[in-house]
Amino acid sequence: MNPFSSGTRLRDMIRSIRACKTAAEERAVVRKECAAIRAAINENDQDYRHRNLAKLMFIHMLGYPTHFGQMECLKSIASAGFPEKRIGYLGLMLLLDERQEVLMLVTNSLKQDLNHTNQYIVGLALCALGNICSAEMARDLAPEVERLLQFRDPNIRKKAALCSIRIIKKVPDLAENFINPAAALLKEKHHGVLITGIQLVTDLCKVSTEALEFFRKPKCLDGLVKTLRDVVNSPYAPEYDIAGITDPFLHIRLLKLLRVLGQGDADASDCMNDILAQVATKTESNKNAGNAILYECVETIMSIEDNGGLRVLAINILGRFLSNRDNNIRYVALNMLMKAITVDAQAVQRHRATILECVKDLDASIRKRALELVYLLVNESNVKPLTKELIDYLEISDQEFKGDLTAKICSMVEKFSPDKIWYIDQMLKVLSEAGNFVKDEVWHALIVVISNASDLHGYTVRALYRAVQTSIEQESLVRVAIWCIGEYGDMLVNNGGVLNIEDPITVTESDAVDVVEIAIKHHSSDITTKAMAMVALLKLSSRFPSCSERIRDIIVQNKGSLVLELQQRSIEFNSIVEKHQNIRSTLVERMPVLDEATFSGRRAGSLPATVSTSSGTSLNLPNGVAKPAAAPLVDLLDLSSDDAPVPSSSGNDFLQDLLGVDVSPASVQPGTSQAPKAGTDVLLDLLSIGSPPVQNNSTPSDILSSSQDNKSSVAKLDGLSPTPSGGAASMIDLLDGFVPNSPKPEDNGPAYPSIVAFESSSLRLTFNFSKPPGNPQTTLIQATFTNLSPNVYTDFVFQAAVPKFLQLHLDPASGNTLPASGNGSITQTLRVTNSQHGKKPLVMRTRIAYKLNNRDVLEEGQINNFPRDL
Amino acid sequence: MIRFILLQNRQGKTRLAKYYVPLEDSEKHKVEYEVHRLVVNRDPKFTNFVEFRTHKVIYRRYAGLFFSLCVDITDNELAYLECIHLFVEILDHFFSNVCELDLVFNFHKVYLILDEFILAGELQETSKRAIIERMGELEKLE
To answer: Which end of chain B has less neighbouring CB within 10 Å, N or C?
Structure first.
């Protein structure tokens, strides 16, 4: 009885579903059908089981839940007849997958069916096993499949071969059992069995070196070469013919296996040279099938051990591909040239103009490939023309392509710029054209470079002033511009440091303030921009005394801002302008030159996305395809996801530690603040809080960048810094430090024993406690750091974090250099307020960073041994 | 290897979906939606390849139907394009002049043909005749 022709009910259901005019109608029909099927399942209706399963499959395909039918599949598989089994297995493959527990129940039925006398039933079982088996089933059923590799019917042999692939992918340990039977398949004449056999051998070689060695032996390899030769030279075979070529799929599988065998083995590569040359020269290239073979052949030639002649042949084929009118062919050419560039960069450079044209193609797939390739082609000698081409194209490119394009342009400009002025020029072009697509790190880097190019300050600030007039909507450009106007505004107005290539320009003081005012009022400006504008205004108020009043008015406008950061800046800056005229000019001095080395050091780790996406690394990837690692997605489509990989989050752990639920971040006191002129420095730091790049400058405060593994988290912290709370908190602390009115510790309270809070082989930290009179909640801790090693520690920074019920304030440390072997110490005062005084003891997490022989060291610990009652 | 095969019409209705990697149902729907979005509006002159997450989709349009294969990034795109065409030829031969409705009402047969053509994400048979003959034998058993 045929479940689909005897009853018309499946057809009826499909018809009635197709007749539905609205989604609601469709849902109603499906609901009714599902109810009927469920009722039938409950009654254990055998007659219509297969029909119901078929209907469920259709319903499943429409996207409705059908899990209630899973057991029906198993029952259907367990029944005796072929039609029932067939629909049962079909349902099994559609409605279940390897991760469902139910699947285990089917193992026994599968085992019986694999040993069934009816070869069609064996075929069904093999098919199901190959498509959905789990690692456990693979172990259980591998012997059956192995045996079936020698079955008399070729249909079973080829199914068993593909099934074996799934098994060895799931359980690589089983690979060695399959080597001999797989080798036997290579001698087959039946194309189906041969092609699956070759595929099995290819996968065996990937999971097992033993297999790889075995198949590399001349007796196997020569056989394969001969098979390929026979296929290439075979006469017309209508059954396998595609566009005049006999079985191109078999060609391609053979070439792929040869590649696996020849890679890294000179002898094996030698064996296949002749046949590869034959394929490369003789294959017809006017149809897709022929090109597919040529493409595979080129890849094999590029991957096996070097043979100069063959590689020239291969690159010529790619050259022909590149000028092909078919987009598909050009796409694969670009793809393969990426691989060829490691082999013969000169040959690829010859096609530069064509590749550059491909960057401007309408097809996003081609554009993306071409851009990656152009990026690999850049060197010192061609960076200028290539950059110009790409920047010109940036103007007219699609919005969705601009992100990729700017990232690549910025990266190549940074890497290969011959001089600073060219770098600045190009970056300004990119920022004015696509500033909104530029990553933060890129404009941070630009500011660092500008700060270091003292002879170009005037030039840059004028160029930015011009650019910002026309591109006010590009936020990154605006940020760089207001930073520079804040710092170098005087040079803008009095034309300081004019280069002879510049057009003269007249800017009044009020024009310069205009720019900043527009930025602060522009609707699209975000808080970072506004905060930076605020700092720029403060700086200008001292540089342009004539505009002082107007600047104060602008600053005051934000005193009611709902954003704490802006409100605070507004009020504090206002009071600086108003009340502290005598110290203002010292406060707002120009930023010291930012340290390029530190910045680029920390960037290297925190910026994989833009810089290294395809720089060196992509060359090592298979096929040269650079992929930003989208971690969860990678696993998503992976076969082996029942071995569920745990997303690694080492970087995040650290963040959770610092910002975790039970631990609130405490203040960080950079060691610099103890340097001479402490007041000014603190304020300088204070003024720069909202602008992350600026923050990066003072080396000692750069603690977080010191250790390699934390770099990713640094980036995240950076990202956090402009948030109102973070910025504001540190600001308050810094201000406290500036006003030195902290009471001297007095020993009036009860005495507490000192503790060794932290001790490692290299460092000891001791705490002495005292209580200020009349305030039992507060404890003053005198921290003393002693160096136990024979080397001096520099850039020493101590950080601490406490749970929410505690409040922590760190005073500046007595220094940032710790002499060797305990010949001196650093002291630092901590003030802790315990809101749960008497109920909970103190607890603290610490992090100590310093440089040892210029190497960054980081020590972390938790302090639990505080005396009680603190 | 082939991660999944989708057969969708222009409206995005799935006519066949075969996954060779385990995915949650919700994830499957998302994948089907995204792949449809990717391929449906592409100019016919464009390449038949689109990058999809960390893999790539090789697709080809026949009348109102899109055949999409999701394969590894290192796989031979041109070969899979040929593979789609061979599959369509087999369907065409089997249903003699196949149209979308054939595939809707006989979806279970389409799955059976596919199972004779591709298994475990790899090509199983390259001869159209062999597959048609095999289908004939299987039909007789019903």
So the answer is: C
